[in-house]
Write a structure and sequence with these properties.
Intra-flagellar_transport_57; about 110 residues; cell projection; cilium; Intraflagellar transport protein 57 homolog
């Protein structure tokens, strides 16, 4: 049975994309999170960033699984601000109830200036 002219190309591209990614693609985010955690530990994030905010260390898959988006967003912003400060730029630590759009805008603006 012949597929409709426009539909066949879409199906082929979809199959090619999944073949290129392979069966392990679904787990790539977990590998990236473990690498991120290793790098944060090398920078002593537990002592320098987490203790200041009285927060628990990240799990191996903290950002890979959406568990509590508000908490995860604040942790991301707090770590981004800490890393910017660690890189030698003064950057005010965001507060938990700050406007998310303003916080992200400030982080991106600071990163662009690097």
């Amino acid at each position: 049975e012949e597929a409709a002219p426009g539909r066949r190309g879409e199906r082929e591209r979809s199959e090619e994309g999944s073949a290129e990614r392979g069966p392990g693609a679904a787990f790539h985010m977990f590998v990236l999170m473990e690498d991120l955690l290793d790098k944060l530990k090398l920078l002593s994030y537990e002592e320098e960033a987490l203790r200041r905010h009285n927060m628990r260390p990240l799990s191996r898959h903290y950002f890979a699984l959406p568990t509590n988006p508000g908490e995860q967003f604040f942790m991301f912003c707090m770590l981004a601000a800490w890393l910017i400060t660690k890189a030698g730029r003064p950057f005010e630590q965001p507060q938990e109830y700050d406007d998310p759009n303003a916080v992200i805008s400030n982080v991106l603006s600071e990163l662009r200036s690097f």
